[in-house]
Amino acid sequence: MTNEPPRIAKVIAPPPVLFVGTLVVALLVDRLVWRLPLDLPDAPRYGIGGILVLLGAVLLFFAATSFARAGTGVRHKAGSSALVTSGPHAFTRNPMYLGMALAYAGFALLADSLVALLALAPLLLVIQFGVIAVEERFMEATFGDDYRAYKKRVRPWI
Question: Is 58 left (phi over 0), alpha (psi -120 to 50) or beta?
Fold first, then answer.
């Protein structure tokens, strides 16, 4: 047994930091600089927003549970020791990021913030190119043909 550190993908920043940071900054801009309400009635805005937050949380929970069952870390610095293809990973390669995106959209709706909702689009580009692309290169190098076959079978988002 060696004491070498786990091999990890060198992503731009931890995805939860990117999602929460973007949401906080967007809400601050919305409240302090440029207020753009969604102009939706409260009932559907709260209903849809709440459902999105709940769906995102459930997806995150089941994806993390799948990682735990496979004995691999959820956090980036824990590294990847197993290729997880079951649970929500059977229909999306990135269920955690999808869950975070759904929850983010839900919180933006609940906060009545068009600024926050609009900020989600560039955030998803950062996630795609600064996180997912890096992780996919890492996964191919780590798991080889098994990962390439999984990539052919399962979509990256939905």
Answer: alpha
- Model's pTM, two decimal places? 0.90
What is the residue range of 105's domain? 51-74+81-158
Q: What are the tokens at 128?
A: 């795609």
CA distances from 17 to 22, 100, 113, 147 (A): 8, 11, 20, 26
Per residue in 15-47, pLDDT (tens digit) is: 999 999 999 999 999 999 999 999 999 999 999
CA–CA separation, 148 and 91 (whole Å): 15
In a domain, 8, yes or no: no
Q: Is residue 33 part of a domain?
A: no
Residue 88 tokens read as 């929500």
Q: Are 107 and 50 in contact (CB under 8 A)?
A: no
For the chain, the domain total comes to 1
